[in-house]
Amino acid sequence: MGIIAPEHKKKSRARETTGPLAVFIALLVIIAVPFFVIKACTKDSSEVSKAAENKVLNTTEESSNYETYTAPLEYSSSRPQSYRKDSRGLYELTSPVMDTASLLTSSDYVMLTNYLVNLSNTTGVQIAVLTLKSLEGKSIEEVSLSHAEKWNLGKNGVDNGALLTVSLTEHELRIETGYGTEGVLTDVLCSRIIRNVIVPEFRQGNYSTGIVKGVQNMAGIITSDENMISEAVTEDSSSVPLPVLIFMIAFAIFYISIIAFSMRHAKRYGRMGPHVYMGPGFGGMHNTGTHFGGSSHSGGFSGGGGHFGGGGASGRW
């Protein structure tokens, strides 16, 4: 009694050894296969999205001088030779387009200025553009918000203003949104405009085109004019495709089932099963990768008393 036959002892040891080993091999296969499948699907989706975006950009470029921006010439003016600053080093607002870095072409400067003045007069929405040669050691968020608060873009009490700030030396830009526009021109949409519309143009050196297209999308979203919004903004290429998302959910359920099976297996043999480390493979996904006021001058442009709270998004090129 109490003596186990040698053959039975060998079988028990073999079962204890091969059980955890088989589970470990299965886990490796389960982790490796979905990785390559997700990578392939994401690549295909990205290529399709890029093709769609290029089609939108080409279509816009072929249109005659941005027909969307055709507006009454209420503010025909050439680019100022210089821009004034206050004691804090902030620019005095004299036009909705403060192109201090001279990134816009002369024709785009006049066209965009006319459009934004007309937009303010007809809808009350005030959008401004500020281009800088350098941030002079400050952050893009600080510079953008400081100018937005000084200029008070948007109507008083409505706060329907927005500011596009671009700094050439640091290759940084930001969209600042007023309290009244941040609910429509959300941080996510601001990020998409920067990443999918403006940055691709900037990387090719097309600063004027990028700024015009960026403002076009900002105005289109705020005024609910779908004709002015690019598909690259409404259909973000960085989002996870639905088939891949479904596969990831199914895989997660299957992965948990394997762990549960392993725990039951360990309990059956009276010991702990193989240690399973749930590493960072399923971490959260981050999306990377924002009132016209001031002094009023003759023939200039001034804010309506709107306010800002730091809403918007920043980016680089």
Please state roughly what percent of the residues sit in beta strands, choosing from under 5%, 5-15%, 15-25%, 25-35%, 35-45% or over 45%.
5-15%
State the separation between the terminal residues, measured CA to CA: 80 Å
From N to C, what is the helix and strand string? HEHEHEEHHHHE
| Shape, per Cα inertia axes | elongated
Task: Please outline the major beta sheet.
Answer: 5 strands, mixed
Discrete helix count: 7
Structural class: alpha/beta
**Mean pLDDT across all residues, rounded?**
74
- Return residue spans where pLDDT drops below 50 for at least 5 consecutive residues: 42-76, 271-299
In short:
The protein has 317 residues and is of the alpha/beta class.
Task: Give an account of the 3D structure.
The protein is of the alpha/beta class and 317 residues long. Helix content is 48%, strand content 10%. It has helices spanning 6-62, 106-123, 140-151, 187-203, 207-222, 231-234, 242-268, and strands spanning 97-99, 126-132, 161-167, 172-178, 308-316.
